[in-house]
User: Fold Apple domain-containing protein from Madurella mycetomatis.
Amino acid sequence: MTAHLAFSGFSRTLCPTSVLLTPTCAYATGGTTSSNGARMDPYQTVQQQEQYYQLQDVPGEKVAPFQYQQQAFQPYRTDASGSDATTSTNTILNVKRSVALGVLAVIVLLSLAVIGLSAGLGVSQRDLRQVKGDLEVAQAIFSSAVAAGAATTVFHTPTPASASSTASATTVADVQCPRANGTMYTARTGSKQFRRMCGIDYGGEGEAVDIGNVQTRSLDACIDACAARPSCTGAGWGVIDGDSGAMHSCWMKTNLTRFHRARDDWGFAVLVSEE
Assistant:
């Protein structure tokens, strides 16, 4: 609604009554009398009754509470404790990095161990034959020394393959044993070195392989004959049944595996070095 005031033949709309929460409304009369005949001051302010209107809630337009809006602006909260998803991701990445570094360190250590083992095996393979030969020689020397110090002498019957150490009652070989036991001899041809031993023989089955025999005057001459053959690695010399005179059998062998005890005057030489 609109309020109207009439003054001396004209009216003017001054204040609409639909204005909310307006305590006062001034009417400028611009005349001398009002509609009821009372004279009014043109600058007089007329107080109007205050009018208030209650705003009604519109259904479906309520604003969500502030706490729910705050949650909407925090999409990275993943649990009740409020931990940040970015922090969890960084922790997982750190754990994975630590595990990867540990695995890499293990791989490096294993690689170094394999390389060291391979190098050690290479050296061992080169020296295996030499070490094995030295061990057998040491065992033979020890056995000969024990036999020489015993009160009685043990005689071993040779196998037919070598026929190495049987002597007749009337023939004795001069092989310088046991005096030459454990001494070194360098062959006259070439530079091969042999170790001389007394009281042992490589002549049984599985002990060595025979590659031939010759007649020589001494153990040293037998060693020279062995050095002349590329495959010969050992030779035995002594008196056997049927031998007569100064010439006696020299048995040349290869693939020396193990030895057995023989009579004290039987000599055997083992190749130690080919240089």
